[in-house]
């Protein structure tokens, strides 16, 4: 009898431990914890080394995981919607403070602009996230930030890229603070 009880305890404890660890990493859905570290991944342009994945950069994988996107099942519209929803619900935490960034606690989009990370800008435009958040620290939207950067870089090589970002984001719905 004692043997059976010990065996039962063993089975129960291993199945209980398995149940705790077998929970999918994406649970709960959406999972904002997956958004942690995005500033570093964007700033470093960290490649996604997963040979099974379809992502060039780790930030893409993290955002897809946070939004619980299934690229094999979700339509392009569902993907955009899921990402925009998780982004917009968590944009207050999608901020960066970095010695390479001129805005303390500025939006991740502004940081990508300052790093001239084209792919990230193209992705957020495609995902249709909110571009009109006013950062508390500088009181500016992404377009206001870009406008200042264009003025600061007047006549140099960086100006052209900033103007392209400005037009792209404006077309995607970005506005100046004065327009909101």
Word description of this protein:
With 180 residues, the protein is mostly helical. The chain has eight helices and two strands. A two-stranded antiparallel ribbon has the order 1-2. The chain is globular and about 45 Å long. The N and C termini lie far apart (74 Å). Residues 2-26 have low confidence and may be disordered.
Keywords:
two-stranded antiparallel sheet; 2 strands; 52% helix; globular; disordered N terminus
The number of strands is 2
Ranges with pLDDT <50 over ≥5 residues? 2-26
Overall shape = globular
- Give the biggest sheet: 2 strands, antiparallel
Helix-strand category = mainly alpha
Helical fraction:
40-55%
> Averaging pLDDT over every residue, what do you get?
86
SSE string? HHHHEEHHHH
What fraction of the residues are assigned to beta strands by DSSP? under 5%
Rg is 21 Å
- Total of helices: 8
> Spatial order of the strands in the main sheet?
1-2
Straight-line distance between termini: 74 Å
């Amino acid at each position: 009898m004692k043997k059976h009880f010990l065996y039962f305890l063993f089975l129960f404890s291993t199945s209980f431990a398995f149940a705790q660890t077998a929970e999918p990493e994406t649970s709960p859905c959406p999972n904002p914890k997956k958004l942690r570290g995005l500033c570093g991944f964007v700033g470093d342009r960290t490649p996604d080394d997963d040979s099974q994945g379809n992502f060039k950069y780790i930030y893409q994988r993290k955002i897809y995981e946070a939004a619980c996107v299934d690229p094999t099942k979700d339509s392009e519209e569902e993907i955009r919607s899921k990402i925009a929803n998780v982004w917009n619900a968590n944009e207050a935490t999608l901020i960066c403070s970095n010695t390479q960034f001129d805005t303390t606690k500025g939006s991740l989009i502004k940081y990508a602009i300052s790093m001239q990370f084209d792919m990230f800008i193209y992705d957020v435009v495609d995902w249709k996230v909110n571009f009109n958040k006013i950062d508390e620290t500088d009181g500016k939207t992404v377009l206001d930030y870009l406008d200042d950067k264009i003025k600061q870089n007047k006549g140099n090589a960086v100006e052209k890229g900033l103007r392209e970002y400005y037009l792209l984001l404006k077309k995607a719905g970005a506005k100046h603070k004065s327009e909101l």
